[in-house]
Amino acid sequence: MTENRHQLTGAWALDAVDDAERADIEEYLESDPEAAAEARSFRETAAALALSLDPIAPPAGLKDDVLSRIARTRQLPPEDAADAPQAPAARTVPDDAGTPEGRGGAGRGPATGDGVRGDGTRGDSVRSDGGRHRAGPMPESTPRREDRPGQVVPLDRYRASVRRSRWLAVAAVGLLATSIGGAALWTAERSQQRDAEMRIEALESAQAETARQQAVVSTILAADDTASTSVPVDGGGALDLLYSVEDGAMVVTTSGLPALPEGKEYQMWLIEDPQHPESVATMSADDSTLVLTRGMEGVTTLAVSVEPAGGSVSPTPDAIVAQGQL
Length: 326
Description:
The strands form three sheets. Strands 4-5-6-9 form a four-stranded antiparallel β-sheet, covered by helices on one side. It is 39% helix and 19% strand. Among the domains are: 118 residues, no CATH class; 99 residues, Immunoglobulin-like (Sandwich), CATH 2.60.40. The chain contains seven helices and eleven strands. A hairpin with a 4-residue loop joins strand 5 and strand 6. By secondary structure, it is α+β, with helices and mostly antiparallel strands. The chain starts with a helix and ends with a strand.
């Protein structure tokens, strides 16, 4: 869960997370000063990217082109219908009200069916119920929506908007790359930390084994029946033994053993009954020290043979390369 939140610190720096994710990430940053410092560096990087490039001059003729397109582009209608211009209401007069001159004015000619006289002025119109409408004055001509001038945005503000959008895009790309790189670096650091922990554990294990060997050696040296011997190995090298039968402890040090073919290894045996030798260890040709703690009463012989990798249940007779009496 912590790793998932850490991977969102780049998005957090760009404000590209929702409220729940932001609260979760900020809680994580409060608990992890190292992650918080990294997240702050993401924000600083984004700001630096936004200011790192010089403004680009717009193409020649851009202003004239924009203004020309604004004049030709139909604008959206008003959102509120109440804002639209209203035509004046018609008035109703009785059929016998006044003379034709009084109704339409002398010398203006008869009115047409829509209340407009032949000379272009408005007169009265006849309703279907026999009454007449007295039209008001002609409203002033209202320009069509497509003929109305559009809102002109100052070129400086347009340039600033374009520049901000471009820098935000550049910052987002740069911050994304930084976030990915930071996540990869964080993962690599965690991997190195795990490797270091494994090395420490191996060292501690080796130290514990060394301490155990030293304790066994101290026990053997303090025993009343301490004994030592060296067993030569065919082809070179030897096994040096330090042991105590009474305490059931033995330390075997190998040195200079011949290298073996692939798929072969040395196998050590303790023999009490020649018919039932007991395997006590398998080993490579590398110099090493083995500590054995077991009952040794009745053991008379130590032998080493060359066996297939993984060992055998009993020594191969013609593969015995070392044998010594205890």
